[in-house]
Amino acid sequence: MAAKLKNDPAAVDAYLATLPEAEQETLESLRRLIKKTIPQVDERISYGTTVMFSLGRDLVGFVSQKKHLSFFTASPKLAAAMKDEITKTHKVSGATIHFTPDNPLPTALVKKIIEARLSENEALSKKS
User: Fold this and answer.
1) What is the rounded distance in angstroms from the CA atom of residue 41 to the CA atom of residue 26?
2) Other Cβ atoms within 10 Å of 1 Cβ, number
3) I need a surface site. Which of 12, 41, 57, 111 has the fewest CB within 10 A?
4) pLDDT in tens, 93-121
5) What is the CATH T-level fold of the domain 9-127, as seen in this structure?
6) In 3D, which of 128, 90, 93 has the Cα closest to residue 109?
7) Which residues lie closer than 8 Å to 76 by C-beta, 6 or more apart?
């Protein structure tokens, strides 16, 4: 079984507070959706700016970058399988979906990704 990862919502709050208002609101909305979909999820800052959500294993994450916001599916296999659906509205690069405050991620897509990631992690947990 994977080791429990650190839960640090205060660090996530502090990171989000450093962002421009539109980015902050967009990422906070995504954060609420993730936590509503998986109420028991842990959240933390990774690599100084990336917000990661986990249940013993990383599930998804997000970060503000210079030209866009990024949503990490944490699964190149999943992103490839969903590429046709993702690219209807957004650009995907590897396991990362790019979006902006003017073009946020669709709620249904985020939920679908989270549910798929939960299934992937459950399968990995059964193998370990």
Assistant:
1) 19
2) 8
3) 111
4) 999 999 999 999 999 999 999 999 999 99
5) Aspartate Aminotransferase, domain 1 (3.90.1150)
6) 90
7) 94, 95
CA gyration radius, the chain? 14
pLDDT, tens digit, for every residue of 59-95?
A: 999 999 999 999 999 999 999 999 999 999 999 999 9
Q: Residue 107 has which token pair?
A: 């709620």
Q: Report the alpha-carbon distance of residue 2 to residue 18 in Å, rounded.
A: 31
Q: How many CB atoms lie within 10 A of CB 52?
A: 22
What is d(CA 31, CA 33) in angstroms, rounded to the nearest whole number?
5
* Beta-strand pair 50-54/42-46: antiparallel
CB neighbour list of residue 37: distance below 8 Å, 6 or more residues apart? 110, 111, 114, 115
Alpha-carbon distance of 79 to 66, in angstroms, equals 22
